[in-house]
Structure formats: C-alpha cells, structure tokens
Design a protein that fits this description.
Low-confidence stretches: 10-14, 17-26
Order of helices and strands: HEEEEEHEEEEEE
Largest sheet: 6 strands, mixed
Structural class: alpha+beta
Radius of gyration: 21 Å
Number of strands: 11
Mean pLDDT: 86
C-alpha cells in the first residue's frame, strides 16, 4: 500500500512539473516590445528611439506612432488619434527584433508620446504595446 501511495505521489509531482514547464514555455512565446529614448530634447535637436522585442505568431508588424496624448493600450483606438511616423516595420513571426528609429526632430514645445504596437497587420489585433514620453523644450 505504501509503495502504491508513493507511486501516486511521484506521478502527481511529475504531472505538476510538466504543467509548470508548459506554462513557462507558453509565456516565452508571447509577443513583447520595449521602447527607450530621451525624456527631454532641445528644440531643433535630432534624436531617436531604440525599439526591441519579440513577435510571436500571428503578430507580424510593429507600428510606431507619435501621439499628442498618452497612448491607448491597443492599436485600433490609437490609429485614429495619432499619426504614423514612418518607423513601422514588417516582422517575422517567431523572431526577435531590434532597431533604432530614424531621427526625430524636436520641433514643437511640450510633451509628446511615442506609441509602439506589435500587431497582426491583417486583423490589427494588438499582441504587445509599449510607450514613452518626452518633452521638447527651448
């Protein structure tokens, strides 16, 4: 009887470990994105951002937008309130990405927001998002 109970405990522990590993592997497959850049820029100066992350299928596009107010948590509402920056890129699902944006030029005094979304280009579903803010000053 003790041997049978011990076998059951071992089986339960093994099954639990498999579940934990499966959840960990699933978490590793999620899309992600980060954006880094300056928090303050003098008017007339050129600056850039570093965007990096991972595109899990079916995500296949990173959209980069400049907004006058804080960023929405998903791409669909953001696309109607902010403008494209020309910094968006196609992504390869299942691959990491990392790039430096082309130069932005500080031109309008005040606070600005950069909104970055990892999406599926066909469905516009958002799989990850990040944002940063900076202030153009004199």
């Amino acid at each position: 009887m003790m041997r049978k109970l011990r076998s059951i405990k071992v089986a339960v522990l093994a099954a639990s470990l498999v579940c934990v590993l499966a959840v960990s592997a699933d978490a590793a497959k999620r899309s992600s994105v980060t954006v880094k850049g300056p928090s303050s820029v003098k008017i007339g100066k050129t600056f850039s951002f570093h965007i990096s992350g991972f595109a899990a299928s079916p995500a296949n596009y990173v959209s980069v937008r400049e907004a006058p107010t804080s960023c929405a948590s998903t791409y669909a509402p953001e696309s109607s309130k902010s403008g494209p920056t020309g910094q968006s890129k196609n992504l390869t699902p299942g691959k990491s990405f990392s790039y430096k944006t082309a130069g932005f030029k500080a031109a309008h005094k005040g606070k600005h927001f950069l909104c970055v979304y990892v999406i599926n280009f066909s469905t516009i579903k958002t799989y990850a998002h990040a944002s940063t803010a900076w202030t153009d000053h004199t």
